[in-house]
Each structure stands twice: as structure tokens, then as C-alpha cells.
Amino acid sequence: MVARAVPVQAGSTSSAMAVPHGPASVSTARRRLRNDLGDRSIPDAVIDDAVLILSELLSNSCRHARPLQAEDPEPGDRPGRSAERRPHVADDGAEIGTVLVSWRMRGDGLLTLEVTDGGATTRPVPASPSVSAHGGRGLSIVGKLAKDWGVRHAPGQVTVWAELPAFEQVRGGGERRSA
User: Fold this and answer.
1) Distance CA 85, CA 95 (A)
2) Where is this region: Disordered (predicted)?
3) 133 Cβ neighbours under 8 A, 6+ residues apart
4) pLDDT tens readout for residues 107-124
5) Which of 24, 127, 139, 155 is buried deepest, with most CB atoms within 10 A?
6) Number of domains in the chain
7) pTM recorded for the entire structure
């Protein structure tokens, strides 16, 4: 599996990486986030919450959403004409693509985590699973750990984000909102 660093502005307190759209990417992103936040002397309890939140967001993306689509020009397209957006497809017919994972320390002490993918047929919302259900609790967990979280839409992509205080451990019961 290959994770690709995405350039960020010099002097920035942010990090971004494009990871393959698939469950194996979750451990790669978690490890990089844990190392990066540890290097910034973020308290372990905050790091643990941030890693869990990122795991939930990226797992949901890989399970429910499409990858970001690369722009491939059709054969014979004229230069300067917009290319049609189509997914890459492997020999076995599986869709290949990436998901963008990023985090940044804001000046106000909030840590913002984001996962950007190609969207899904439904909007990300917390579920109300039964006690015996094997899944469906991820966004509820995010809502309990994060100060705030939400969903941002752009053409061809959806970003689910969460923010939490980086230097104080406050269990928020965050509100979900769109940006």
C-alpha cells in the first residue's frame, strides 16, 4: 500500500496525505497522525481521541463512499477541454482511487481532522443501531469525542470533518452541522 504526502504551505501546522481507498489505509493514517501529534507534544488522551475519530471517519469513507476520481481525458480529447471525471478501474472491475486525509492545528487550539472522498448515495449521519448490531456507532462516537463535526460538499467530493481541543480533554457531545 502506498500513501502519498500532499504538499502543504511552508510553516503550516497541518498535514495531508492521499491514501488508497480501502481498509488497509486506516492503520497507515492512524500511525502517521499519532506520530505527528506526538511530535507536537499533544497530550496522549487527545491523541487517542484524535486517532479514534480519524479511524471512524476513514473507515466510513472506505466502507460507504466512492474514492476521489482522477481526471482522465478521453482518447481524442482536444487540449484545453475539460476531461470527463471517471474512476480508475482495476482488472477485476474494482474501483481504484484515493481518499484525502488531513489534520491541522488551528491558532485557537483546536485540532481539525478531515477525510475527503468521492461521496456516496447517502449523507453521513449517526445511526441508532440495536444493542446487538455489529456496527453503526462510528459517527455517534465521533459526536461524543469531538467538540464539533460536520459534512462539507463540493463538486465530486464530500469532506467529513471533526474538531477537538488539542490541549484540554473535554468530552463535547459535539453538534453536527454542515459547512
Assistant:
1) 13
2) 1-27, 65-91
3) none
4) 888 999 999 999 988 776
5) 139
6) 1
7) 0.73
